[in-house]
Design goal:
- The structure is a single chain.
- By secondary structure, the protein is an alpha/beta fold.
- The chain folds into three domains: 95 residues; 117 residues, no CATH class; 178 residues, no CATH class.
- It is 49% helix and 9% strand.
- The protein has 16 helices and ten strands.
- It has a four-stranded parallel sheet with strand order 4-3-5-6. A two-stranded antiparallel sheet has the order 1-2. Strands 7-8 form a two-stranded antiparallel sheet.
- The termini are far apart.
- Keywords: Membrane, Transferase, Transmembrane, Transmembrane helix.
- One of its GO terms (molecular function) is phosphotransferase activity, for other substituted phosphate groups.
- Belongs to the bacterial sugar transferase family.
- This is UDP-glucose lipid carrier transferase.
Length: 436
């Protein structure tokens, strides 16, 4: 039956499954649930066994509850973080366990609750071991997923990976590929499809085969947005929810104020070294473009000679001769960015967001890259998704690539993505990725 008159928006869009994530695979859900349950029971049975009797102490009970909450909280956080591209859930396991243990310790101290060091020690050891074993057992229970891809949108950029296989269709249909099981069909919801392709999508939905938007799949695999296949968006549709903005503002300010003795001491010590090495101010203040295209004065520790911009603004290159000896080190480990905490407290920046650029660069890139100003929808950050996944940009092509990562962050902004950036930033500081 020919159905060329079917409305794409009315019939197909409601059938799209959301969200697609890189970790989405065809899994034996009942087996995975059984594995998780058995491992949790085994873990806490081991923990409980020496203490189960009629005279169990409140200290032991409090400690057992803390360990159970650490297990549940870490499992939940690992599941959330594994949604983002380039992240292995095991990478964040040590940090998440440490965070939950620290929270438990603060609760014990704040409310003067009794606790057992022995029980907590067993828990601190058993929880990460259990989650590590759980991760590998579940990985064995998963099988590769097979997706059919319609030849529209950014389909050229999709490629197979360890878990997923993408098969490009030349004509609408299932038979020619001789596939036993199909886990989903990918199509670009913003393309005008003819009746045959619409009929194929409708047939897929009738077979209970999930439909996914190609752009979302591309983003979930690559961690960036395809700039040449973006739907029409307004700045209002990208504006983060007020609750997220308020929560982030409060948490960032509290974190900066609580840790101020440590970072202020580091900044002052580094400033002294800068003054001893070369003449000129220890701090470098420069006008940058922030949220809404408004300019502000961003402060950094000086890492270059005082005449570094005598010939105008320019990007730092590899082994740039303008960079001082102290500057090379503090740029590598990002110490030069710490004074921007003052910009965060003033509300001009955030800890996490697209890096702010100079007005001259912004004007140049806006002329060459039409979507460039979209990155100003959110506050600029000291670190960001583009910095920890792409690195440094010093020309038009690398700036486009960086913008694609920035736009992914703007579209998917959330506290969980911010946490992911924090973990990647720590790794970046340790290895010096993208520093110049």
């Amino acid at each position: 039956m020919h159905i060329s008159n079917i409305s794409n928006d009315a019939q197909i869009l409601p059938l799209i499954q959301k969200p697609y994530t890189q970790s989405k695979v065809n899994t034996h859900r009942s087996k995975i649930l059984l594995v998780r349950s058995l491992l949790a029971v085994a873990c806490f049975s081991t923990l409980y066994a020496p203490f189960i009797n009629s005279n169990v102490s409140s200290a032991a009970l409090n400690s057992i509850i803390a360990c159970m909450m650490t297990f549940i909280g870490t499992t939940y956080a690992m599941t959330k973080l594994s949604r983002y591209p380039g992240n292995s859930s095991l990478m964040s396991l040590p940090s998440l366990v440490l965070i939950h243990v620290t929270i438990a310790a603060l609760i014990f101290i704040s409310f003067r609750l009794e606790y057992s060091r022995l029980v907590l020690s067993i828990g601190i050891l058993s929880v990460p071991i259990t989650l590590f074993v759980q991760h590998h057992l579940i990985k064995r229970l998963t099988q590769a997923s097979t997706y059919l891809v319609t030849p529209f949108g950014c389909f050229q950029s999709l490629k197979s990976n360890s878990h997923n296989q993408f098969i490009l269709l030349s004509t609408p249909g299932f038979g020619e590929n001789n596939i036993k099981h199909i886990d989903g069909v990918l199509f670009d919801q913003h393309e005008k499809l003819d009746g045959h392709w619409q009929q194929f999508l409708a047939s897929s939905a009738n077979r209970n085969i999930p439909l996914y938007d190609t752009t979302e799949v591309y983003e979930s695999i690559n961690g960036k947005s395809p700039l040449d296949h973006l739907p029409e968006l307004s700045s209002g549709s990208l504006k983060p929810h007020w609750l997220y903005r308020s929560t982030k503002r409060i948490l960032e300010s509290l974190l900066i104020l609580v840790t101020s003795p440590a970072w202020l001491s580091l900044v002052l010590f580094t400033a002294l070294l800068i003054k001893l090495e070369s003449k000129g101010p220890a701090f470098f203040i420069q006008r940058r473009v922030g949220q809404g295209g408004k300019e502000f004065s961003m402060v950094k520790l000086r890492s270059m000679r005082t005449d570094s911009e005598a010939n105008g603004a320019q990007f730092a290159g590899e082994d740039d001769p303008r960079i001082t000896k102290i500057g090379k080190f503090i740029r590598k480990v990002r110490i030069d960015e710490i004074p921007q905490f003052f910009n965060v407290l003033k509300g001009e920046m955030a800890l996490i967001g697209p890096r702010p650029e100079q007005a001259s660069f912004v004007k140049e890139f806006e002329e060459k890259i039409p979507l460039y100003s979209m990155r100003h929808v959110v506050k600029p950050g000291i670190t960001g998704w583009a910095q920890v996944t792409h690195g440094y940009a010093d020309d038009e092509e690398s700036t486009k690539e960086k913008l694609a990562h920035d736009f992914y962050y703007v579209k998917n902004i959330s506290l969980w993505l911010d946490i992911m950036v924090v973990f990647k930033t720590i790794k970046t500081m340790l290895i010096g990725f993208g520093a110049r």
